[in-house]
TrEMBL record:
Compositional bias ranges of the Basic residues kind: 187-207
GO terms, molecular function: G protein activity; GTP binding
Record-linked InterPro entries: P-loop_NTPase (IPR027417), Rsr1 (IPR041841), Small_GTP-bd (IPR005225), Small_GTPase (IPR001806), Small_GTPase_Ras-type (IPR020849)
Recorded catalytic activity of this chain's protein: GTP + H2O = GDP + phosphate + H(+)
Biological-process GO terms, alphabetical: regulation of establishment of cell polarity; signal transduction
Residue ranges, compositional bias (Basic and acidic residues): 173-186
Name of the protein: Ras-related protein RSR1
Membrane topology qualifier: Lipid-anchor
Keywords of this entry: Cell membrane, GTP-binding, Hydrolase, Lipoprotein, Membrane, Methylation, Nucleotide-binding, Prenylation
NCBIfam families on file: small_GTP (TIGR00231)
Length: 207
């Protein structure tokens, strides 16, 4: 009987984009109306993905500037990253480009499991980030999966975590099967495995 795998997910993004609300909805099925920012919160959740039971260790990070020095540690230990912005704030999307580059640099890997999340899709009337703009960025990042989610309405909340977990699982399986080659990293194809099998191009998922 195989040992249950544990995967470490880090939720990143600027302050106020709804990282904690997304995480709380996924882990506890609750909507947090108001949230006091903390340095970090850690959650554990058992889920089943593609018939396999896994444990997710989820680190909900603070988005405030005084905690940016801690990000390097998060990035070193994380296996997959939810990069969250608010569709009501263009600057929150632009901040993620720097975070993504920092992740790739610290991990020395161009194919780190990631999902781009445009949160607050229930605030369509306040939208500042056009869907095509966010989708173009996800394509420029190597077809990183892009979802628009609403923590308030619990729209695409499970989907973003499951997609990220699936990416980590596939990467884990590839590395487990690959022979040791002097500790060198292997170059993997950029396309991701999505729902229903492998595909070369990801499409934007919106509500």
């Amino acid at each position: 009987m195989s040992t249950q795998r544990e995967y470490h997910i880090v939720v990143l993004g600027s302050g106020g984009v709804g990282k904690s609300c997304l995480t709380a909805q996924f882990v506890q099925n609750v909507w947090i109306e108001s949230y006091d920012p903390t340095i970090e919160d850690s959650y554990r959740k058992n889920i089943e993905v593609d018939g396999r039971s896994v444990i997710l260790e989820i680190l909900d990070t603070a988005g405030t500037e005084q905690f940016t020095a801690m990000r390097e540690l998060y990035m070193k230990t994380g296996q997959g990253f939810l990069l969250v912005f608010s569709i009501t704030s263009m600057s929150s999307l632009y901040e993620l480009t720097e975070l993504r580059e920092q992740i790739r640099r610290i991990k020395e890997d161009d194919n780190v499991p990631m999902v781009l999340v445009g949160n607050k899709s229930d605030l369509e009337e306040d939208r500042a980030v056009p869907r095509p703009r966010a989708f173009k960025i996800s394509q420029d990042w190597g077809n990183v999966p892009y979802y628009e989610a609403s923590a308030r309405r619990r729209a695409n909340v499970d989907e973003v975590f499951v997609d990220l977990c699936r990416q980590i699982m596939h990467k884990d399986q590839r590395e487990y099967r690959a022979p040791e080659r002097g500790g060198r990293r292997r170059t993997e194809p950029r396309h991701r495995s999505g729902r229903g099998g492998r595909q070369k191009h990801r499409t934007c998922t919106i509500l």
